[in-house]
Design goal:
The complex is a heterodimer of chains A (about 100) and B (about 450). With about 100 residues, chain A is mostly helical. Chain A has one domain. In chain A, about 65% of the residues lie in helices and about 0% in strands. Chain A is built from 4 helices and no strands. In chain A, helix 1 runs antiparallel to helix 2 and helix 1 packs parallel to helix 3. The termini of chain A are far apart. The model of chain A has no long low-confidence stretch (mean pLDDT about 90). Chain B has about 450 residues and is of the alpha/beta class. Among the domains of chain B are: about 55 residues, no CATH class; about 230 residues, Aspartate Aminotransferase, domain 2 (3-Layer(aba) Sandwich), CATH 3.40.640.10. In chain B, helix 9 links the parallel strand 9 and strand 10. In chain B, helix 4 runs parallel beside helix 10, helix 5 packs parallel to helix 6 and helix 10 packs across helix 14. The radius of gyration of chain B is 24 Å and the shape is globular. Chain B starts with a helix and ends in a 13-residue tail after the last helix. About 5% of the residues of chain B have low confidence. Classes of the chains: A mainly alpha (about 100), B alpha/beta (about 450). At the A-B interface, helix 2 and helix 3 of A face strand 4, helix 3 and helix 14 of B. Chain A: It holds the Pfam family Complex1_LYR. Chain A: This is Complex 1 LYR protein domain-containing protein. Chain A: InterPro entries: Complex1_LYR_dom (IPR008011), Complex1_LYR_LYRM4 (IPR045297).
């Protein structure tokens, strides 16, 4: 939670969070989760790009920070139990594999 | 051949077991040998399981059977598998207290999603148990005055089977037919009501065809006749707006694993005003006010609660996206194939469920050919049988079309690329099967198949 007295995050901080989320998304070994995390981060920032009220900016920022922490932890968990075989969506030359 | 296979697997396992003797005791070796015979063999080149070889893990389009656990849900659950293992019913120490707080938080998260009070939520093992306790429990409790239940022909197997069980006990059940669009006729429902009707049970979103029943209207009828209304909302929760007041339900079955939560947990909503009472199925320590005894599975409940909270927050976002993917899939297939029919109403349906029939194609062959796409012909519960779905038959779908149905389930984690690949593979497979089909050839020549008199044998 952000305390009311705290100043709203400045632009470089917000961009830093955005980049960190995209970086965290890339770490997911699971195809679907990776794509979702990336997409959700992009769409989330797009949704909030016109926020002007410092309080809502602060709370959106805090929410993003929270999501980043989850993504970092879960990327590790997913990597611990990643299946040996990838999704067919990730295979190099899928056309050859379809019979 | 089979014995050779078992022998070789056995030998492999025994050597493996010997290597890991520290982990697996000898007495488990036989059990391990039996199970490894069915274990998937994975290597860099693909997976082999049940004699099917696939180059990669298939793309998953079976969201009505179950959904993947959302990483945010797992993140909420994991602490309760590690240090916070207390029994939520323990009143004498911190372990119990922290688990109890977590369970009660989850209860409010679930209640919040359906517009109920946390006091009206009873945790169960899943929607099947909730349905069982709703139907059998209510009728057993009020058995002196109420002897009749109304339900529909397209309900989930566990509702129908609970009703069959009641029938054997001497209760009477009316199975209402549905229209060709899968929707129940309200006048027929009204006409079926008797003075001794004790329960009306109609599911919110159908698991096979995705049609949404007119819940508010049915709720009104139940209110008018003062009959308890039960609904199986396992497929509706988190996907369409669910409001127990608007629907006027007395009982509602919910499930965790259909909304990106864990399997093995569900809930039963039980109205407090006017109060509905049930006879418990499971007796014991008196947990959940005696309606469902047994220690609550804290990690699962925390996951279910978290899944509900996320579902509420993400409902609009997910809905927009799933609608776009649904349109992409349907248009993509219809553009390239003729003779494709959507089963169930087009107007009143949950958009993440697309049940299609492909004319002149045999459904099982299509499913077998689509091994890179994880889809099903209908309900997972009945996918083992070759019988056409009873839901589609209730809709009056012709036998041949009912045999060729495929249910595509789109969810939160489905991508555009997956939908495109599914279209490509489905079209390819259907075209291949139609090429081999004499029926399709006859249709193209202009022969009406329905007019053909097949020789009896």
């Amino acid at each position: 939670m952000v305390s009311p007295g705290q100043a709203a995050p400045i632009r470089p901080e917000i961009l830093g969070l955005y980049r960190a989320l995209l970086r965290a998304a890339r770490e997911f070994r699971d195809y679907n989760v990776r794509e979702y995390t990336k997409r959700r981060a992009i769409d989330g920032f797009r949704e909030n790009q016109n926020l002007t009220d410092p309080e809502s900016i602060s709370s959106a920022y805090a929410e993003g920070k929270n999501q980043l922490a989850i993504a970092k932890r879960q990327a590790v968990v997913y990597s611990l139990y990643a299946p040996k075989v990838k999704s067919i969506m990730e295979l190099e030359n899928p056309a050859d594999l379809i019979n | 051949m089979a014995s050779k296979l078992i022998a070789s697997t056995l030998r492999k396992t025994l050597t493996k077991a010997a290597k890991t003797a520290g982990v697996r005791s000898l007495s488990n070796a036989t059990a391990a040998a039996v199970s490894t015979a069915y274990e998937p063999q994975e290597d860099q080149n693909g997976i082999t399981l049940k004699g099917v070889r696939i180059a990669g893990r298939p793309l998953y389009l079976d969201m009505q059977a179950t959904t993947p656990v959302d990483p945010r849900v797992l993140d909420a659950m994991l602490p309760f598998y590690l240090s916070r293992y207390g029994n939520p019913h323990s009143r004498t120490h911190l372990f119990g207290w922290e688990s109890e707080v977590a369970v009660e938080t989850a209860r409010s998260q679930i209640a919040d999603l359906i517009g109920a009070s946390p006091k009206e939520i009873i945790f169960t093992s899943g929607a099947t148990e909730s349905n069982n306790v709703s139907i059998k429990g209510v009728m057993h409790f009020y058995k002196d005055k109420k002897r009749h239940v109304i339900t529909t022909q397209t309900e989930h197997k566990c509702v129908l089977d609970s009703c069959r069980h009641l029938q054997q006990e001497g209760f009477e059940i009316t199975y209402l037919p549905v229209g060709a669009d899968g929707i129940v006729n309200l006048d027929e429902l009204r006409a079926a009501i008797r003075p001794d009707t004790g329960l009306i049970s109609v599911m919110a979103v159908n698991n096979e065809i995705g049609v949404i029943q007119p819940m508010e209207e049915i709720g009104q009828i139940c209110k008018e006749f003062k009959i308890p209304f039960h609904t199986d909302a396992a497929q509706a929760l988190g996907k369409i707006p669910v409001d127990v007041e608007k629907w006027n339900v007395s009982l509602m079955s919910l499930s965790g694993h259909k909304i990106y939560g864990p399997k093995g947990v569900g809930a039963l909503y039980m109205r407090r005003r006017p109060r509905i009472r049930v006879e418990p199925l499971i007796n014991g320590g008196g947990q959940e006010r005696g309606i469902r005894s047994g220690t609550l599975p804290t990690p699962l409940i925390v996951g279910f609660g978290s899944a509900c909270e996320i579902a509420k927050k993400e409902m609009d976002y997910d809905h927009k996206r799933i609608t776009a993917l649904h349109d992409r899939l349907l248009n993509g297939i219809k553009e390239k194939l003729d003779g494709v029919v959507v089963n169930g109403s087009m107007e009143r349906r949950y958009i993440g469920n697309l049940n299609l029939s492909f004319a002149y194609v045999e459904g099982e062959s299509l499913l077998m050919g689509l091994k890179e796409v994880a889809v099903s012909s209908g309900s997972a519960c009945t996918s083992a049988s070759l019988e056409p779905s009873y839901v589609l038959r209730a809709l009056g779908v012709d036998e041949d079309m009912a045999h060729t149905s495929i249910r595509f389930g789109i969810g939160r984690f489905t991508t555009e690329a997956e939908v495109d690949r599914a279209i490509e593979l489905t079209v390819k497979q259907v075209e291949k099967l139609r090429e081999m089909s004499p029926l399709y050839e006859m249709v193209k020549e202009g022969i009406d198949i329905k007019q053909i008199q097949w020789a009896q044998h």
